[in-house]
Amino acid sequence: MPEKTARSGRTYTAHYADVHLIVRRGAEILMGRRSSQPVFPHTYQVPAGLMEDHEPATMAAAREFTEETGAIVSPGDVRFVHLMHHVSTHAGSRRIAFSFEVDRWRGQIGNPEPDKCRGWQWHKATSLPEPMPPHLGIALQHNSNGATYSEYAWPPGAQAGASATASTSTTHG
Questions:
Q1: Do 20 and 80 contact (CB within 8 A), yes or no?
Q2: What is this structure's pTM?
């Protein structure tokens, strides 16, 4: 994991920041099946990706949605629903994943990146397709339970002294 150096000279571990956009149509969620990608190949995913430098999270979610579906969502329509601090079970990198939700967009949902995605389909929120990246399944479960924060896949002992509250859910895996 890369390190950053503060002006004070102190170093700290950098985190990747992901955005996930849960696109809702009534009781359904939009999901696409990844193609033969290096990370979580052939799994189902919501529109998602890494935040770019100097980009607010809501703008990143809107950008990723457009890049992956060809449709447009206004960052003002994007609602925060969950934050997960996790360790990638694929690469071991530390990540902060912002999950947002939206139920309004403009244009037709298509598949402008067929090399990355086999296409987008609507799935009932109560019976989502498998497989999906483990952190996404956990985040969606926490979101459906109303939890706005969770931690996932941290090694045992990484949370010594941490306590969970009603809005916090911790999962190790």
A1: no
A2: 0.85
